[in-house]
Amino acid sequence: MKRTTIKKSFDCIDFKQSSQDKIATEIKNLSHSEQIKYFKQNIDESDLKIWWNSLNN
To answer: Cα–chain-centroid distance for residue 38?
Structure first.
């Protein structure tokens, strides 16, 4: 029986880790209130805004 090799073009775990590292670097020196502002601003500028607003309704 032959083994099938699957070529991955997107690594979800790697993407998640690099995203978390980027955010951690950006908020490292922010106060708690500045971190909240950072996340709210990024949500407002993303496609997640519709989803986020649906949670608050």
So the answer is: 13
- Taking 90 as the threshold, does the pLDDT of residue 27 lie above it? yes
Contact between 30 and 38 under an 8 Å Cβ cutoff? The reply is yes
**27 and 36 Cβ atoms separated by less than 8 Å:** no
Beta carbons of 26 and 38 less than 8 angstroms apart: yes
d(Cα 2, Cα 19) in Å, to the nearest integer? 37
Going by C-alpha positions, the residue among 21, 17, 20, 23 that lies closest to residue 41 is 23
* pTM, entire model: 0.63
CA dist 15 and 9 (Å) reads 11
Name the band, by pLDDT with cuts 50, 70 and 90, for residue 6.
confident
